[in-house]
Amino acid sequence: MSGMINEFEMAQRQFDHVASLMHLDPQVAEFLRWPMREYHFRIPVRMDDGTIRTFQGFRVQHNDARGPNKGGIRFHPAETIDTVRALAFWMTWKCAVADLPLGGGKGGVVIDPATLSTAEKERLCRGYVDIMWRNLGPRTDVPAPDVGTTPQMMGWMMDEYSKLVGQYTPGVITGKPLGGGGSAGRTEATGYGVIYTVREAMKMLGIDSRGTVAAIQGFGNVAQYAAIGFVEMLGGKVACVSYWDREDRCAYTVSKEGGIDPHFLMSITDQYGTIDKNKAVAAGYKIEDGEAWITKEADVLIPAALSGTINAETVKGVHERVKIVAEGANGPTTPEADELFKARNIFVIPDFLCNAGGVTVSYFESVQNDMNYYWTKEEVLSRLDTKITTAFHGVVEMAQKQGVFMRDAAYMVAIDKVVKAMQLRGWI
């Protein structure tokens, strides 16, 4: 979904590099390079005008050695099986690095959800479950919202599954609405998790977070709460955010002298992350080219949009002030860009560690569904902070012990846990 970059090939390249550093058995490495199962299917949906339209759907289950597969369902017009494979692959490592008893899964439908009415979206969500329900379940594979999907859509999917199995089964889906089996703190989880890792990185590097500046790519759920967290938890400023303008079919960067107000920008942003640029300009914001965010004078870069956006070309624009790159998105940095970060000694918090807050609270949601007892938002966020902080320091220790880049260390921690689980189960 990022031009010429194939995310799955990129993910395999990252994995192969670390497998060789770890001297991983080639047979085990070959098994882990590919998903255990994948489903390709067609979903017929009756549209509001009475016609029937057929949509392409995917679900990939990468590895369930440590527990049920876990991962979002994306509705995006440029979805491909390779993006879904890559994201399922990264979910396996994300769950392992955060020490969650889950495996990696991901789903997708090739559609721009903004082109559907609410009733059409509901029928598509229910149609997805009608086809996949035998291969989903709280102990099998647990979807969640992702790009282009919402808590309400997860509520419809959970309801459809519950009807088909004949009993209320909230644990089949996470990211559900509050009051419909959802968890407090889920909305903020991924963005706040990013900021917990940035906080720990700053402590480690001896940086006083007050007065630091971040430049953020994206203004969806992750970017919104990363921006709020950076300002409110760390006392820093956010120089800019970027967003995809659906009407103009291009990206813009929105900045303001003295820093943006994330709450104000959220108030003029639609459910798909598009900022009303006229209202932004009227409030004194500057509208720039979509790639301007990466060139800003900032201490921290937070790519929190789509994959492959920091690549061999765009990385050349990174300001010399940048000390930390916190990957809020999945796969935002290509291996070529990583090499430049290594050369410049920029501290990279890799995606499947940095943005593991969402799946961690999804796991908490499953636990609460099982107990039929729900924690307060403060309890959820406190547990999240503990989990993410522990995971961060585990990866730092591995990086220091092995003398490797943080991304390689995160893979080492995760691969080691998955391989051990496979050995304990007698798979290898």
Automatic annotation (TrEMBL):
<keyword id="KW-0520">NAD</keyword>
<dbReference type="InterPro" id="IPR006095">
    <property type="entry name" value="Glu/Leu/Phe/Val/Trp_DH"/>
</dbReference>
<dbReference type="InterPro" id="IPR036291">
    <property type="entry name" value="NAD(P)-bd_dom_sf"/>
</dbReference>
<feature type="binding site">
    <location>
        <position position="70"/>
    </location>
    <ligand>
        <name>substrate</name>
    </ligand>
</feature>
<feature type="site" description="Important for catalysis">
    <location>
        <position position="146"/>
    </location>
</feature>
<dbReference type="InterPro" id="IPR006097">
    <property type="entry name" value="Glu/Leu/Phe/Val/Trp_DH_dimer"/>
</dbReference>
<dbReference type="InterPro" id="IPR006096">
    <property type="entry name" value="Glu/Leu/Phe/Val/Trp_DH_C"/>
</dbReference>
<feature type="domain" description="Glutamate/phenylalanine/leucine/valine/L-tryptophan dehydrogenase C-terminal">
    <location>
        <begin position="183"/>
        <end position="426"/>
    </location>
</feature>
<feature type="binding site">
    <location>
        <position position="362"/>
    </location>
    <ligand>
        <name>substrate</name>
    </ligand>
</feature>
<feature type="binding site">
    <location>
        <position position="190"/>
    </location>
    <ligand>
        <name>NAD(+)</name>
    </ligand>
</feature>
<feature type="active site" description="Proton donor">
    <location>
        <position position="106"/>
    </location>
</feature>
<dbReference type="InterPro" id="IPR046346">
    <property type="entry name" value="Aminoacid_DH-like_N_sf"/>
</dbReference>
<keyword id="KW-0560">Oxidoreductase</keyword>
<dbReference type="Pfam" id="PF00208">
    <property type="entry name" value="ELFV_dehydrog"/>
</dbReference>
<feature type="binding site">
    <location>
        <position position="94"/>
    </location>
    <ligand>
        <name>substrate</name>
    </ligand>
</feature>
<dbReference type="InterPro" id="IPR033524">
    <property type="entry name" value="Glu/Leu/Phe/Val_DH_AS"/>
</dbReference>
<dbReference type="InterPro" id="IPR033922">
    <property type="entry name" value="NAD_bind_Glu_DH"/>
</dbReference>
<dbReference type="GO" id="GO:0006538">
    <property type="term" value="P:L-glutamate catabolic process"/>
</dbReference>
<keyword id="KW-0547">Nucleotide-binding</keyword>
<comment type="similarity">
    <text>Belongs to the Glu/Leu/Phe/Val dehydrogenases family.</text>
</comment>
<feature type="binding site">
    <location>
        <position position="221"/>
    </location>
    <ligand>
        <name>NAD(+)</name>
    </ligand>
</feature>
<dbReference type="InterPro" id="IPR014362">
    <property type="entry name" value="Glu_DH"/>
</dbReference>
<dbReference type="GO" id="GO:0004352">
    <property type="term" value="F:glutamate dehydrogenase (NAD+) activity"/>
</dbReference>
<protein>
    <recommendedName>
        <fullName>Glutamate dehydrogenase</fullName>
    </recommendedName>
</protein>
<dbReference type="GO" id="GO:0000166">
    <property type="term" value="F:nucleotide binding"/>
</dbReference>
<dbReference type="Pfam" id="PF02812">
    <property type="entry name" value="ELFV_dehydrog_N"/>
</dbReference>
